[in-house]
Amino acid sequence: MVLPTPLQAFSSVPKADPPARQQTIIDGEKMTGAQALVRSLEDLGVQDVFGIPGGAILPVYDAINEHTGFRFVLTRHEQAAGHAAEGYAIATGRVGVCIVTSGPGATNVVTAIADANMDSVPLLVITGQVNVEAIGTDAFQEADIVGITYPVAKHSFLVTRAQDIPRVLAEAHYIAGSGRPGPVVVDVTKTAQRETMYYSWPQRMILPGYNPITKAHGHVLAEAAKLFAQAYRPVLYVGGGAARSDAGAQVKALAELTDAPIVTTLPARGLVSDRDPKVLGMPGMHGTIAATGAIQRSDLLVAIGARFDDRVTGDLDAFAPGAHVIHIDIDPAEIGKNRQPDVPIVGDVSTVLEDLIPEIARTQAIQGRQDRSSWWNQIEQWREKYPDTYTKPTDGSLAPQWVIEQISAQADEQTIWVSGVGQHQMWASQFIDFCNPHSWISSGGLGTMGYGLPAALGACVGSERDFEGKKPVWLIDGDGSFQMNSQELATVFLEHMPLKIAILNNSTLGMVRQWQTLFYQQHYSQTDLFDGDDVPEEDDVPNFVTLAQAYGCVGLRAHTKDEAVAAIKQANATHDRPVLIDFRVWKDAMVWPMVAAGSSNDEVVYMPGITPLKASGVTASISRN
Fold first, then answer.
1. Contact yes or no for 565/556 (Cβ under 8 A)
2. What does each C-alpha distance from 201 to 26, 157, 166 come to in angstroms?
3. Is 332 helix (H, G, I), strand (E, B) or coil?
4. Residue 501: enclosing H or E segment and its boundaries?
């Protein structure tokens, strides 16, 4: 028997039809449930799996051997297994898979499940569970993982019979990758793993009520085209849903057709190349002045796979106050959740745009296109006057922004960029030159420190699998974020991944320190990770160079610009093992621009004392009439 929880209202583009190997039909072969689980993953076309064994999942691991049709990557922590599966999924567009045990193994992976849920990342998380008769008895390593993950997963299953395993895995894999992607949990009792059953493939899925809408109704497309025809100051506000839908070409085509600027939220960076003149960068709390100003002064805001997140909107009531809104999203629950749209469009982003573009072209053929030259003049003034910039260090250390600029300048254009969470994440999003879609992997909605290294591991595995000659992978991390999962250095070394790791080491929790500087009267409570001013370098805690070397990696350190450039070159030239560079950066560096939490985006501070949108002479209360 299988006990599913109700499906949440999540619904993006189906990445692939379920059962990838439908031509393989095996009827009636007797095996254990554990063997059936492994066979089902093979028949689903799964190529790579991450995880750690444990007692309640041991029968499944016993069924994994040298003849298994997928590669298994043994991580050193269950949370890392989940994040590695996330990085793999974002880099490849496939469902990421991890297998962990019950109890603490399952609870350890909950953070990755919640992270994937916030960022719409397709995951299949298989957890072990105690025997059926032991459920509810507080047995050793028992945890109600279905109940625990109910609020943070797209769907959760409890499997108590071996015969249900192939069908449930087919359903889970399909749910994870279809509609709005997300994490699906399959909790498999040890009873089901040990039982014998008769295996057959493909499986008939039973998913009543789960019918993601991918194609928009024609009348809303016509309404959207009318709003474009009337707009003088349109903005394409592009979010992670567009990235998951692989809609970069469609977004670019829409921008060209309508002469509208593109702003991209954090997970959509690189969807359209930064070298495209229509791309203004990221809006919101740490966005560019051009992107934030364009949204605030727009008369038509086209939200494309975006959810009006608070880090983008600031004070929601003051967000784009003069704009009509078209909202395109595959998840109907997102439509009107934070901002009521004038034209709601439910559907897969790439599919909707494919249909919307010719509708707009037809409208333009009849009515012509608005002259938007004055709008672009305003945007270019913002870009010219307020480019990405930073304050130079006063203590002789490296500017972290400069370090990222140098890494970006020397990197291969096909590089996959990964970050942890903190100041370094914002600087990476600002100062890396993103050229390609699916080239940026970071924890957005949940903001999970410790995400970077395991996600980079997953990206490396995906790159090795998908791309001839591999795509280089660079991890930009902070010393605080990195230490939360630094044990995965063992995994990247033993898996022979030539990962390049840049640690922007300021010996503090930098983003927290920035807030303490700005909002807590410089009371630096519990943010200094190590005060090494009077300590020999070899006594640093940790000494990142010797830590890297202890795990078999190359460890380098850079204090000066010359040392930094040389270390980056060495990292790029090293292909047989991971390289970690400890960049000593300025402790008091800050992320600018900044909108204080809960404030209007019109209050954005470019640099201390400079508030461009307040000084522009254009008030926030533009009439929508």
1. no
2. 6, 20, 8
3. helix
4. strand 500-505
**Nearest alpha carbon to residue 90 among 476, 456, 448, 474:** 456
Residue with tokens 């959509």: 268
618: tokens are 């254009």
pLDDT for the residue numbered 468: 58
pLDDT digits (tens, 9 = 90+) for 301-349: 999 999 999 999 999 999 999 999 999 999 999 999 999 999 999 999 9
What is the Cα–Cα distance from 555 to 578, expressed in whole angstroms?
9
For the chain, percent of residues with pLDDT exceeding 90: 89
- When pLDDT is averaged across residues 468-490 and rounded to a whole number, the result is 93
List, in order of start, the domains of the chain with CATH numbers.
2-200 (3.40.50.970), 218-385 (3.40.50.1220), 400-584 (3.40.50.970)
Phi/psi-derived region of residue 51, left when phi > 0, alpha when psi is between -120 and 50, beta in every other case: left
Q: Residue 615 — very low, low, confident or very high, per pLDDT cuts 50/70/90?
A: low
Give the integer Cα–Cα distance in Å for 11 and 241. 11
Instruction: Tell me the pairing of strands 183-189 and 155-159.
Output: parallel
pTM score, whole prediction = 0.93
Judge whether 88 and 490 are in contact, CB under 8 Å: no
Q: Which residues are the active-site residues?
A: 78, 140-141, 190, 511
In the beta sheet, which residues pair with residue 74? 51
Average pLDDT of the segment spanning 424-440: 96
Other residues' Cβ atoms within 10 Å of the Cβ of residue 376: 17
Beta bridge partners of 9: none
With 0-12 / 13-18 / 19 or more C-beta atoms within 10 angstroms meaning exposed / middle / buried, residue 465 is middle
Determine the number of helices (DSSP H) and then strands (DSSP E) in the chain.
Answer: 24, 21
- List, for residues 7-61, the tens digit of each pLDDT value: 433 333 334 444 444 444 446 799 999 999 999 999 999 999 999 999 999 999 9
